[in-house]
Design brief:
mainly alpha, 8 helices, 68% helix, 0% strand, globular
Length: 119
């Protein structure tokens, strides 16, 4: 049985999806401020690996790592919700099926408590 990562086309496709995702995120006034002075090429590289991980691709991330890198970012629940909405829309626009999008969304939402730092 193929993983979502394999079905979608692997690293090259995930990289395009993540690049498009961040183009959309940077167009969102409520989110763009989180990326001031961020090396976007480096972030896209890391996020490509993270999304690959969520798709059962050849990458691994620990929740401890995710918590550490998000702890200082002051991410609110509405911002997290908007990010997940943008990600779902981006995946759909790149041909991901509803079931696969739901899996990615569920896996990301399982990590909400370590990404959202402002309650």
């Amino acid at each position: 049985m193929q993983t979502i990562y394999e079905r979608c086309g692997g690293f090259a496709v995930v990289r395009k999806v993540v690049s498009d995702f961040y183009d959309r995120v940077l167009d969102e006034d409520r989110l763009a401020g989180h990326f001031t002075d961020v090396d976007m090429a480096r972030l896209i590289d890391h996020q490509t690996k993270f999304i690959s991980y969520l798709l059962d691709g050849p990458a691994s991330f620990s929740d401890d790592h995710l918590e550490r890198v998000h702890s200082h970012l002051q991410i609110t629940l509405p911002e997290f919700d908007l990010m997940t909405t943008v990600l779902r829309e981006t995946l759909a626009d790149h041909g991901f099926g509803e079931a696969d999008i739901a899996v990615v969304d569920q896996r990301l939402r399982q990590r909400e408590s370590i990404i959202v730092t402002v309650r």
